[in-house]
Amino acid sequence: MAPLRPGDPAPDFELARDGGGSISLSALRGKPVVLFFYPKDDTKTCTVEAISFSSLSDEFTSAGVALIGISPDSVKSHDRFARKHDLTVVLAADEDKTVVNAYGVWAEKSMYGRKYMGVERTTFLIDPDGIVNRIWEKVKVAGHAEEVLAAAKTLRTD
């Protein structure tokens, strides 16, 4: 499957989320959506990223932008992660890796010479019509949430 690019329709999904219930992309149609894919709950860089997005969640909400973090971790793991770090972003559980595969972020990685499969830290900005507007690949966390917020604010929701 070809990788997603700006201008492509964002693959729909429905995933279980922290705190119970589920969240779907189609239910958010009509507003911009930020999906940030991260490898694992409660690891150093993932925690910094989730805290960064959480610290700006009120600003995303004020701008009419939905914000969702997605990883292959379970809802139970997400609940612990959110409680431990007072996270205010929605965390969706993609345990069967359907969504990470649909978005092309499940990839071969390498650490200390060992190859393995995992989530490539990537953020997608989806416009109110469900079209991919922008993609940040191999994200460096410092300043990332602020950059995404600035880009999301440029999308019209009227």
Automatic annotation (TrEMBL):
PROSITE patterns: THIOREDOXIN_2
GO CC annotation: cytoplasm
GO molecular function: thioredoxin peroxidase activity
Reaction(s) catalysed by this chain's protein: a hydroperoxide + [thioredoxin]-dithiol = an alcohol + [thioredoxin]-disulfide + H2O
EC numbers: 1.11.1.24
Catalytic residues as annotated in Swiss-Prot or TrEMBL: C46
Pfam families found in the cross-reference section: AhpC-TSA
UniProt function note: Thiol-specific peroxidase that catalyzes the reduction of hydrogen peroxide and organic hydroperoxides to water and alcohols, respectively. Plays a role in cell protection against oxidative stress by detoxifying peroxides and as sensor of hydrogen peroxide-mediated signaling events.
Protein name per Swiss-Prot or TrEMBL: thioredoxin-dependent peroxiredoxin
